[in-house]
Amino acid sequence: MNELLKNLTEAVGVSGEEKEVRRLIRDLIVDHVDEWHVDAMGNLIALKKGTGAVNLRVMVDAHMDEVGLIVIDYDSNGTLKFSGVGGFDDRALLGKVVQVGSKKITGVIGARPIHLLNASQRSSVVKMDDMRIDIGAKNKDAASAKINIGDRAAFVTEYEELGLTAIGKSFDNRAGCAALVELLRERPYPFDLIATFTVQEEVGLRGATTAAYGVQPDVALILECTPAYDLPNKDDVSPNVALGEGPSIYVMDSGTLQDPRLVSLITQTAADNNIPFQIRRPGGGGTNTAVIQRVRGAIPAATIAVPGRYAHTPTMMINLDDYANVVKLAKATLLNLTEDIVKRN
Ligand SMILES: [Zn+2]
Question: What is the tens place of the pLDDT at every residue in 141-161?
Fold first, then answer.
């Protein structure tokens, strides 16, 4: 059992309320870094001093936050109105168990029972507006005694390994966080490595915006979990990325064209070390790379991701070999970094 992935995915950190995850990561890395601090946004920023052989400041980023829900009002019957924090697929919500607020009050996402729906209601998707979180409170006063407006609700999903695959919540992006923790446990790199465990990615890359500005790196590597759509399809289309095919390397997404020098370095490093990899098919989606790349006078940046099925739902699935290979590839890439790679002429 991968205890790191288990502990990180079972911890709760819906965007804007990342404290539990941040403290867990802080405790995991504190003995392996020289300095750490938390900035005003809540980003955990840690410096691992290098040997000085390579004159670069290298930022490695992983966002800590996960998609979830936020309580916006109470109904008179004691149920909770909510909206999404981060991009959500409403279809994945009904019947799911959630934990609400810092006291982790258990609730279930409910709607009108299927028996009481007419034919057209049965065939349409229930909108989030028509769902409620039910914590078993008998009226509004009972609900408001336990829950505050603004409390986050997170999914309750136990981490489990099924052979080489693992299921759990929030592999997006605790898989990236776990990989970054593993990188910090290594011996010092030839350069100063600044790890940024950032907040509020899922609501618009907000934590990385301030973190990258503050860190002022020469080069940045972003560790992520990217949605894999590799299930049987009626049409003969190749998957964007597939589970078990190795780390997913970005060349383009909705917010970036990745730095071509870094993309070449990553793919060449993978080939040299016999690490499988796949180029993520360009298309939608985005990562912290979009804002890190454009901070100050621009930062060369690239992204390596663990492919994950069912992103932004209560239960995701990853392949554990893909995860291990992301750690290997990120480490090998860092060790191949030189000042020349980021010089333009
Ligand atoms: Zn993510």
Answer: 999 999 999 999 999 999 999
pLDDT tens digits, 252-264: 999 999 999 999 9
**Pairing state of beta strands 44-48 and 192-198?**
antiparallel
Q: Is 202 a catalytic residue?
A: no
Which CATH fold would you assign to the domain 3-66+169-342?
Aminopeptidase (3.40.630)
C-alpha dist (Å) from residue 201 to 172, 181, 291: 10, 18, 10
> Ligand 1 centroid to 329 CA: how many Å?
19
Q: Which of 182, 201, 224, 245 is catalytic?
A: 201
The residues of the chain that CATH labels 2.40.30.40 are 68-155
Q: Domain 68-155 class? A: mainly beta
User: From ligand 1's centre to the CA of 172, what distance in Å?
Assistant: 5
In the reported structure, the alpha carbon of residue 57 is separated from the centroid of ligand 1 by a whole-number distance in angstroms of 24
What's the per-residue H, E or C state across 294-334? CCCCCCCEEEEEEEEECCCCCCEEEEHHHHHHHHHHHHHHH
